[in-house]
Amino acid sequence: MADAVYRHGFTLAGFSERVFAHVRKEIRAGVIRMTNPLDLGDVFDIRFYEEIIERVLQEPDVDGVVFGHTYTHDAAIPPTQGLIRATGRLSQQYGKPVVFFLVAGREHFFALRETDDFPIFADPEQAVQALAVSRRHHDRQSLRTATQPLPSGRVKPVGKAPLTPSFMSPEASFHLLRSHGLPVADFSVITSLREACDAAEQIGYPVALKIASPEILHKTEVRGVHLNLKNRPALTAAFRAMNTGRVLVQKMSAPGREVMIGGRQDREFGPVILFGLGGIFVEVIRDVAMRICPIDHEEAVRMIEDTKGFRILQGFRKQPPADLKALNTCLVKVSRILVEHPEVQNLDINPMLIFDEGQGCIVVDVKIQIDGI
Fold first, then answer.
1. What is the pLDDT of residues 214-263, one digit of tens each?
2. What CATH topology corresponds to 257-370?
């Protein structure tokens, strides 16, 4: 069990003499080693098990307990049920998690597990892993409580949401990301060819033209995107081919590795953030990691590493590693948006381009849906 404890990032607390003195009263063969983990192998007393669990929970250096019990025969079912229930009560009483693993035959294990709501596990590895999950959940809840809104004036509110779901305009979506410090490709929304040419000159060629309509979600499917326009004639031809009112002129970015960052307000978990490889194949590849918001930088690292695309971002087939530090920062900032703006029901940044290490990243496209309040 000690190996599992260290493997999941825990340390073994030192027990006080008060605990060991209580154990010595019940020793029969005198073979118990006074250490942690504490082997109670020659003590067969359910009442004493309850007492020792409580004594350990009272230890100031103990944050949680893993307790293992060996089920021996049918006659032990009622006392074992009582021990499981007592363990649950003690965990609630002292406000510390206790995980219980039971060594028993398959039939008896499942029979006992269904007698009470308190969870029991089949081996110490599962038990310690459950304790690690509990710790991560507690850390996230603490982070959410500690998250403070950005100082007044830095973030403009999205505004009162309509009574029915709708998508924010591209410029409003980009402005929201920028207000939270995310890097966004330079852009301008125009309504005429002359404005398009002026915007391109100001932004600098090459540029892209995109339909600036929140109702059109998949612009490439309606030929609403023209990329890498290097001069005025190319821009003019693309603009006339689009035949639409509002158009977004955007600076073309250097090539990078495409990722997506998404988020939504989940009915069960609240705001959640998603991350994976991006581009047009994201719906096919489905290589996505998800976390409950908000996340910190350590959780963002784990989130990135959970995806198969992490190998590509690390550097693959002589490619240099991507700027994971910049990506990490963006994930944390998007999680803040989802927490501070509950009216943002769905958010989809795709793609975000990640450049080589030290060169940052940039948002190329985003769709944000706001819902009724």
1. 766 556 555 789 999 999 999 999 999 987 778 999 999 999 999 999 99
2. D-amino Acid Aminotransferase; Chain A, domain 1 (3.30.470)
